[in-house]
Write the structure tokens for this entry.
Amino acid sequence: MSVKKIGVYICECGGNISDFVDTERLRIEIAKEKDVDSSMVNMFTCSDAGQQKVIEDIKEKHLDGIVVASCSPKLHLGTFRAMAKRAGLNEYQYTQVNLREQCSWAHTHDMQKATKKGLRLIRAGIAKTLNSKPLKKLRVKTLPHVLVIGAGMAGMRAALSLSDIGISVHVIEKEPEVGGMTKRWGKMFPRNKNGYELVEKLETELKKRDNIELLTNAELVEKDGHIGDFSVKIQVKKDHFFSLKVGCIIVSTGFETYTPTKGEFGYGLPGIVTLPEFEELLAQTDDGSKMISYNKKQIKSICYIYCVGSRQNKMMGESAHQYCSRYCCSATVNTSNQVHEIDQTINQFHLYRDIRTYGKYELLYTKSLEEGSLYFRYDEEYPPSVSFENNTCTVVVKDSLTGNQNIKMNCDLVVLVTGMIPRTNKQLANVLKIPIGQDGFFNEIHPKLRPVETVVDGVFIAGSCQGPKNLSESVASSMAAVAKSAALLLKGYVNLEPLVAEVDPNLCEWCGECLKACPYNAIQITEIENKKIAEVVPILCKGGGVCVPACPSQAISVKGYTNTQISSMIESLAKNVDIIDEETNEEKKTS
Amino acid sequence: MITTNTDSQKNEKIVTINCQFLNQMKLGSEFNATACINCGTCTAICPMEINLLPRQLFRYVLIGAEEKVLENVNNIYSCLLCRMCEENCPAGVHIAENVRSLRTYINREVYGLSRS
Ligand SMILES: Cc1cc2nc3c(=O)[nH]c(=O)nc-3n(C[C@H](O)[C@H](O)[C@H](O)COP(=O)(O)OP(=O)(O)OC[C@H]3O[C@@H](n4cnc5c(N)ncnc54)[C@H](O)[C@@H]3O)c2cc1C
Ligand code: SF4
Ligand code: SF4
Ligand code: SF4
């Protein structure tokens, strides 16, 4: 059923469009087009009143397809689809023409030419609607079962919360033990709870739950299926494999800490350690011992060098870690407060670039100042130098707080405050196809509005695998992933966009080109009347259309963007628009 | 001896931190200059136009740069203790009090004078 009676609604966008494009003139010309049964100019089509007017017009004239020439579909595609639906139309027989971003805003200097371009764009929209077919959303059933990958704090917390809601969980951890990084730490900011104790608490709780299955030494090796119904294959130890069906997947695989290159700030020399190494030392130091020893030597002075492996200059090349690691200022300041608690006579020097103890953690910084920690500020261009002689480390820093003078300090221990870096997880990234951001961490769809969803439907990311996060931030994002998973699974089904590829069995010769082109494994082979042809699994297809140009027989096309639609749009775009140069009859009359 | 990243310090003077001095000043604890915000009011207002800015002096004391303090003994004794600066310091640093406690230290350590 293709469209025969079309309504075209041109929006002024309160002047945003009509100040630069002659909207009324466009309406007059569009009204002359074949198949256009109604045309209208509105000041704000998206307003309630504007939408109501359009709906009445559609019903009154018994239209079966519409075009709205307004802003970018990014803004109002959903709005106008819903409007079309309320008017009794199929929402996929609506086309949005971007007359604002792609016309009026781009051509503010020449109204006549902009109007001509507008005419072309709207004609193309009409052609697209004319050749559209009614489509139905794909409905998929969801299984109330989740796979959590990585049993750090983020993963364990997610599993427990899902279990609370009544959703069963499989947690897989690639190490022999759970707890991730946190199990290595002693007193953690902000409340000074021991990291290893926090881990123990969650682990005990996890093991009590009937609806949580925890597997250590386990990794994901294969994933098939789609949102709501994934089949996953898990490898336990070297030789044991088993399969599982889950409705969605939460990835909480965490981070790695930066390891300085040999010689970077003296790393490799005795007495020079990283923050994680120092924190492990502290976690093993008895609170009551009143002293800290390193290599059997009592520590009397410590120098911390901040931002090691973070905020690197982009001149260092693509691998530079340009971001701030977020956790380390607060963690270091907190650590120095712990040191002070154990032994008040230890002198502590902090060499920083900027102190970023944001939010409530500022209090930790104030405390450390009160306790006598000394702060020195260095510029990125003049990193401190570190040397080792006579059993002590010597650090020289060009301190901008002392008029850029070089200050030398001797200390028993130098702590390099190393940042967070993305974990190398090639196999997992390959299996799940989660996009990786410029910084190397897993990428969400939208950092503000869709912070834990990925472009792979049904795969969520949580915790520090997304980017540097402290513990409370890691857990907060894992709770967000729980909420998204539960919302998806408890409803029982999901609706998906039907704009997916489709094969014309008459044209397909099964050459396999589309299968090679498809990045989502959405093409499979099937047989109709003894003829091998390609078949699209609609649920897996993202409608990206990479397969379309690959097909030598033009047998495959994407619904809503079919070959007929696209070629008719191109023809319409190319049609003559000189008519705009001529005066209209009305203009002739008035002049 | 092994050294890294030394380029920036070539041919430049280096001030060394003396932990003993640092601890002495900390223990004395009458000396308090951490609140200083480096605004320069004290410098602008000082009737003696003392060469060494109080805030620089305080920084030297704070970080335990004893050599710098000793270099500036004359400046420290030029202060009138008039408290003009202290009255006007927006951060409430006890400037004159600090100078006084520094003099106590110098009297003891440099001139060998002790209170008892
Ligand atoms: C030195 C240091 C001190 C810190 N101090 C504090 C502090 O005081 N306060 C604070 O709030 N935060 C602190 N943090 C930050 C805190 O450690 C992190 O926020 C937290 O560990 C993040 O938890 P996570 O679960 O996201 O990741 P992780 O702890 O890294 O856990 C990830 C887990 O996933 C597993 N995994 C990885 N890949 C796979 C795979 N392919 N398959 C299966 N499993 C996999 C890993 O083995 C690991 O167990 C500190 C960090 C450092 C480095
Ligand atoms: S949190 Fe602090 S130490 Fe860490 S990278 Fe950012 S500024 Fe540097
Ligand atoms: S590329 Fe075209 S002809 Fe070849 S298998 Fe795919 S749909 Fe069929
Ligand atoms: S007036 Fe006070 S705050 Fe300002 S520089 Fe002098 S001592 Fe510091």
Remarks:
- The interface with chain A takes residues 1-6, 8-9, 12-17, 19, 22-23, 26, 34, 38, 56, 59-60, 62-65 of chain B (CB under 8 Å).
- Strands of chain B lie at 2-4, 14-16.
- The helical segments of chain B are 19-28, 41-45, 54-63, 66-71, 73-78, 84-88, 95-109.
